[in-house]
Amino acid sequence: MFFNQKLVHGRLIKRYKRFLTDVKLDDGAEVVAHCTNSGSMKSCIEEGAEVFLSPVNDPKRKTRFTWEMILINGGWVGIHTGRPNQLAVEAVRNDEIPGLTGYTRVVPEKKIHDSRLDVMAQNDEETCFIEVKNVTLKEGRYALFPDAVTTRGRKHLETLIRLKGEGYRAVMLYIIQRMDVEVFAPATEIDPGYSETLKKAVNAGVEVFPVQAEVSPEGIVLRDVLPFEI
């Protein structure tokens, strides 16, 4: 996916109240940007680091910008949690992820049972439900999820387990918005409950696709499916 407008460059002053970020633009102005990421953002917060923001032309919005990415260790890390869902829908429609191809109908935000999953993909042979998560946490060569305890994430896994038992294809798709990692794994020390539920899901037949994404001010491009350790 490519950004449909030019992003605005600046440097991070601070993030606060989870959803707000102060940024100093290149012209010296200081602005408040919306941060979509509700997690801890561990390993992708560095005050003074370069960032890019997307302008928002919505008079109802209190903030005029949305924080898109930050430069960490010489590479861009995508922190906008809405982008992975857009990438997933686009990629499944265009057969861009090996193993998730051949679907003729792709529906975002599908409500099923007591959950709302990010993607439903169908063809004449099967219906596949896909839940998408944004991954930014890095520890050594590992990309880890989650970066904070997530009861909602566990609920989504339990829904996928249930759907698999009902005969559907069930997929957990992790979009890793950084290129400086090699393997995906659950962040057991941060959320052991999520880790255990993910193991349960894999044993039940839920498929795991950790897909690395290359982030730049021009856009976000999916690259390789990484190996994972559960």
Automatic annotation (TrEMBL):
CDD domains registered for this protein in UniProt: SfsA-like_bacterial (cd22359)
Pfam families named in the record: SfsA, SfsA_N
Coiled-coil ranges from the UniProt annotation: none
GO molecular function terms noted in the UniProt entry: DNA binding
Origin superkingdom: Bacteria
Domain SfsA N-terminal OB: 13-79
Domain Sugar fermentation stimulation protein C-terminal: 83-218
PANTHER family: SUGAR FERMENTATION STIMULATION PROTEIN A (PTHR30545)
Family: Belongs to the SfsA family.
NCBIfam families xref list: sfsA
Name of the protein this chain belongs to: Sugar fermentation stimulation protein homolog
Species assigned in the record: Marinilabilia rubra
